[in-house]
Amino acid sequence: MMKKLILLSFLTTLILNAQAATVTWAGGNGFWGDANWTGAVGAPLIGDDVVISSGEVTVRDSRLIRTVTVNGTGKLIINSDGNLSIIIGTGSVVDALEVNGSSGAAMVTVEQGGKLFTSNDFDVDNVRGIYVLLGGTFINHGEVDVLINDTNVAAIYHAGGTFQNMATGLIEVSKADDSGVEGTGIIAFDLFQNAGTIIIKDTDNHGFDLRGTTVNNGSIEIESAEQIGFDLDGSSDFTNNGTIEVENTGGSAFVVDGDFTNGNNGEIYVGSRNGTKGNIGNVGMNILPSATTAINRGLIQIDHFKEISEGLYVQNPNFINSGNIDITHVSATSYGIETANGGMTNEDCANIRSTLPFFIGSSSTFTNEGNIFMDTDRPSTIVSTAGVNGLLTNNGQIEDFQASFDLSAAFFINNGFVLQPISGSYEFNEAIPNILQGAGPGVGASVALDDAGATVVGTYDKTNNEFTATSTDAICETTFYLILNVGSSCPVAMRFQLEEPIIPDAANASQVMEIKVFLQGNYDPVTGLMNDDLRVAGLIPLDDPYDLPPFQSQTITNLALLDDLGDDSIVDWVLLEIAPVSDPSNIIRKIPLLLQRDGDIVNWFDGGQVNISLLQSCESYYLRIRHRNHLGIAVEFTPNF
Known about the structure:
By secondary structure, this protein is mainly beta. Among the domains are: 228-413; 427-498; 511-637, no CATH class. The strands form eight sheets. It has a 23-stranded mixed β-sheet that branches. A 16-stranded parallel β-sheet has the order 2-5-8-12-15-18-21-23-25-28-33-36-39-42-45-47, with no helix packed on it.
């Protein structure tokens, strides 16, 4: 009796070992049933692990095995003739490639450039491209790998387990009579992860209809879907760190009805990308009321959505933008963003750009802490007439290109700035007349010569709408930057342009001249001084000796200036002429001055340095010194305001 038990155990072991055999395709092109396998007498048996590293294997009828690995230059072509081509594990016979982990370690991998093709060109119901059941695993590490040409239902059906398209893997669905990728069932699938490229073309239902945990670190492109392009169902937990593009849909492009807390950290393009147009049949992105907190930390770009519709429709109580949202659609009836019984916050440092107005629905709110760039000729905000609770609050900056904001509206509370540039520049004679001040002190502002704000040249008082220059660097300039949110980690610089430079005056534009000249005839090179014989002889006239009309002549009234002052004793009168370099003959100023023995030229009234405070131009000048008995001298001078 004992011997029989031992024998039975031994036989059982033999059977188990046989079921776990590794069977390798020997290379070349052929069919699954060919005797071209290493590790098997004929075709692989139930429970075998199949490896295709080179050559091309075509499957046309049902096969039951444990795992398939396609790598190297290997190809697995599944061409269904109405029956299931390959079953991995156990399951119903309805799909081209089924991954079912219920019977053990069921797995399909496509590695190192290997290729897997599924071609279901026959009019048979319920034929899919790839079917992953609970516990099963599909992994693609290839380069140009999985091509699903035509399916009667969802091309990729994921009801559980793990689906991973990794590295440079490419999965392309060219036609599906249902969705491109579908996740359904009572139990949500465990993980759908893409780090490569997935392209979905021409689906009769959704492009993506997902549940469970979905992570995109690669690229997903949906080029045509009869209904929704990208649908996140209620049980979905979604994170996008890569790129998603949705073009040409019959319904909305992107619908969120699940957990979007991890949200978008990458890029989402709705309607078109890089100038390629793709019409959207309804809302660009729809955040449903049942969605968990939705957060955008990356880029969402929306255009080409339906007329009388919305680019971004927020029905959720809490949609947060901390990244960038660009809505560039051109429409006479659509809205860029609409909030309906929900709330949206554009956080500090975040940006929203829209060529369409916002609709703030009844009992909904929109709060801007960052930057909004609005460029529409329609009223920028429209509040629902059915309710009084719709409210837009601006605590940041709004760049209002076409003056479409109505600050007097009861639903608009402005604690920040609303700016009205013209093609990015402000053009006016006054300081900054088109800036509309807010009700509170929420945003600080300074004026600088560069967008980094490194050189602050003035301050802006939004209450009185006044720009005050605090540095002479501002004089002779016409281009400035208004730096908003001073002290913030991400200040905003708005460029504005004055039609004329700030005019220098005695208060902010005086030039102190230190001018030194020597008259050759009475200069002593030993002492380095000139003689003052005229002063000693009393021959220096009190009135300047120059014929100055229309300029003013001067008279020495402080006779102490003609006393013996040593090195500072007066030698004679000289004349300072000022003429622009652009027109030297146009003398714009003649100023009589006094010359001292040490060569200094000083004022006639107090003997101090020359202070010219009435220059009215910011261009370069010639400064010319003339004497009644000597040749004149000239030097070019650029005002340093």
